[in-house]
Amino acid sequence: MTGATSPAVWTFDDFLPGSVLGRLSIALDAQRIAHWTAIYGLPTTPDRLPSGLLVAAMMEAYLRAIQPRPPGNIHASQTLRFGGAARPGDELQAEVACVAKELRRERRWVTFGVSLRNGSKNILGGEIRTIWAK
Amino acid sequence: MAVHHDIALPQELQPAQLHVGADIVHRYAELTADFNPIHLDPEFAARTPFGAPIIHGTLGLNLVVEAIEKTFGTLPAEVAIEVRFSRPVPVGATVLAGGSLRDPRTGTYEIFVATENGERALEGTCVIGMAG
């Protein structure tokens, strides 16, 4: 993974809006598909992966890019914009960035942007809005 | 049935339902690398305001995506989703995801995830075919 130098634990003060926090690859391999199938059942289109699997990949990118993190963060809201699909065996390129942060009513709001690219195509982008614990 | 950007829009999304036991939550933790103890550790969760483990928010959100794909056969070319996680869902609950067409002109559905007792855990909108 490449990106910002990690602090000992990511706190609200460490986030700089506009900065990239990490870039990483996520393989849509057999193990990942097996986990998905155990939860949601077999994909109905064998040559096209369920779009929810891309959401799961987005969350993994977000979690892996910002480590270690304090316990107690709250995932408050989420946006998703789908622009394409993926097939079994594809390897996605993810980028995680800090979009905004705001201290409001003693709550530390941080918005993260995550984009997933499959080859040259942006297949999923979205924002994860959190109340950061520290 | 309404049509938006050549996509037929049914009034209701085909619902998707899932019983979310601890085994499912552990699988989802493996899938997303999200091992937050609030989802996995009853002793840790007991010391939080939730009192017990809760499911990952996107575990339910993905059930909405499943409902959309069931309805349209596959995800339409351009889809935008915006949701708020309004209530935690305890591990062991059964959740139902669905949606209703709110505005055929823009292809906008109101979407939700609810527990067995009808409490909304996730609410928001989904716009089908927003480009074009």
Description:
Chain A: This is Acyl dehydratase. The complex is a heterodimer of chains A (134) and B (132). Chain A is an alpha+beta fold. Chain A has a single domain, classed as Roll (Thiol Ester Dehydrase, Chain A), CATH 3.10.129.10. In chain A, 19% of the residues lie in helices and 41% in strands. Chain A has two helices and five strands. Chain A has helices at residues 30-40, 51-65, and strands spanning 20-27, 74-82, 91-104, 107-118, 121-132. Chain A has a five-stranded antiparallel beta sheet, with helices on one face. Chain A starts with 19 loop residues before the first strand and ends with a strand. Chain B is of the alpha+beta class. Chain B has a single domain (2-20, 55-128), classed as Roll (Thiol Ester Dehydrase, Chain A). Helices cover 27% and strands 33% of the residues of chain B. In chain B, β6 and β7 (120-128) form a beta hairpin. Chain B is elongated, with a radius of gyration of 16 Å. The mean pLDDT of chain B is 93. Classes of the chains: A alpha+beta (134), B alpha+beta (132). β2 of chain A pairs antiparallel with β4 (79-85) of chain B.
